[in-house]
Amino acid sequence: MPKKNTNSKPKQEKGILLILILLVIFASASFWEALKLSPRIKTKQDLADYYGITRKTLNKWITHFTTINLEEFKKIRKITFSDLSQILNQLGRVKENSQPLSKKEIKKRCETSDRVLRENISEKYCGISLETYKQVNIFPPNISKKILSHIGV
């Protein structure tokens, strides 16, 4: 008596799951933004210029605000499409209502003091710890937006 092939259903489920994952990736805004920016952003300096920051600040952002290993990031010469997509997703895209902001700009927009700002920084609401806040002077768009939102702007 021949055995029935019981493996066809799991293979079909894996195929459907793969298709769904690919659809989600293609539909994500960061993917399309990365696709649009990839001809302009090829190097780390291009990426720093896109955000209007220095390479040193970019390295701090990679350390504190992304899952990318800084030592590996320092070794690469060209930014791959997948790295660019991941970075844009984690740091945010520069738009009219979402800009990298310095502590001074955040204080000005919130009309508050540095002390009040420090007291209101929390990982839960702003996405950064107080220690990270002390080490970084300019914040990526996603974090700037969270801080402004939490403080009430």
Q: Would you spell out the secondary-structure blueprint of this structure?
A:
Blueprint: H1 8-27, H2 29-37, H3 44-51, H4 55-65, H5 70-75, H6 81-91, E1 101-102, H7 103-110, H8 114-120, H9 123-126, H10 130-135, E2 138-139, H11 141-151
Antiparallel strand pairs: 1-2
Helix pairs in contact: 2-6
Could you explain the architecture of this structure?
The protein is mainly alpha-helical and 153 residues long. The protein is built from eleven helices and two strands. The radius of gyration is 20 Å and the shape is globular. It starts with 7 loop residues before the first helix and ends with a helix. The mean pLDDT is 84. This is Helix-turn-helix domain-containing protein. It comes from Aureispira anguillae.
Describe, in short, the structure shown.
With 153 residues, this protein is mainly alpha-helical.
Provide keyphrases for this structure.
153 residues, mainly alpha, two-stranded antiparallel sheet, 11 helices, 2 strands
Pick out the low-confidence regions.
none
Based on CA atoms alone, the radius of gyration comes out at: 20 Å
Question: Major beta sheet, specifics?
Answer: 2 strands, antiparallel
Q: State the end-to-end CA separation.
A: 73 Å
Approximate helicity band: 55-70%
Instruction: Note the run of SSEs as H and E.
Output: HHHHHHEHHHHEH
Number of H/I helices:
11
Largest sheet: spatial strand order: 1-2
SS content category: mainly alpha
The beta-strand count equals 2
Strand content: under 5%
Mean pLDDT across all residues, rounded?
Answer: 84
Molecular shape: globular
